[in-house]
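User: My collaborator sent over this chain with a note saying "see what the structure looks like." That's all I know about it. Can you take a look?
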Amino acid sequence: MNKFLFSSVETAGPLPHAGRSIFVAAPDGLRLHVCEHGVASCPGTPVVCLPGLTRTTADFDDLARALAVGELTRRVIALDSRGRGQSANDPDPKNYTPAVELLDLLTVLNALNISRAVFVGSSRGGILAMLLAASHPEIIAGTVLHDIGPAIEPAGVARIKSYVGKLREPSNLNEGADMLRELFAAQFPKLTAAQWFAAAERTWKKEAGKLVQTYDPALATTLADFNIEHPLPPLWNEFDALAGAPVLVIRGANSDILSAATVREMRARHPGLQVIEVADQGHVPFLDNADLIQRIGDFVTSCEGKPTP
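Assistant: Without extra context I'll predict from the sequence alone. Here is the result:
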């Protein structure tokens, strides 16, 4: 790992959900936030969680807690990409790219002395995991692709483009929960009121007496040039770089980003691929279900002792 850029590390106090905050300087000096559960001395292979385009480490709180204190304790970290969560906003939105975010990820791994890990990537985070496999396959002990694959459905991207950076500020979290239900009920028809409220808590934060989104609205620029007539370039070569390590795909049955046809092609190219389909959920399935968390935990455990490709 010494070929990666050195970065200073700043440790903060524990977070309300029992993790602790660590801040790492990106190569350009921007402050990146990491939520850590467990410690470096834990015997299990570390797990690195990578949220989606506008998402934060909070999406992984339940999963991270469970993985850290399982039968084999392990260090679990989740990274807020630049412009999300507690990481600093980038003054130049042109830096909100997978290439820059991959360099940030490598810097964090180096700063925290993580040379090999199981990666759990939600949506954009799964893209980063595939890019990492293509550039540094030795780091990959296993990968969970959370409702993402090498081919991304244009209709889903168009839907995401329609609201990123455009949500109005709710007056309170109950109103925020209603806004999210209105936007996403078609993909998530069976969520409870408590789940919608929890989603609102992960979407907005209080700042100067107002509720603001937990990401830089300038992230919308990453989708500015997207045209539904021209799908995003596929990442089959990057996916094929995962061939030497176990892969688990989690797909929401109602997903408009990861199609069933793409999952079939992924299975054909990676014969050992495991797949979980989450009924009545879309992009991305919530990681708050005990059975789903257990199955992810079983997969992570199965990655122990696998040889480096």
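A starting point for your reply to your collaborator: Residues 98-111 form the longest helix (14 residues).
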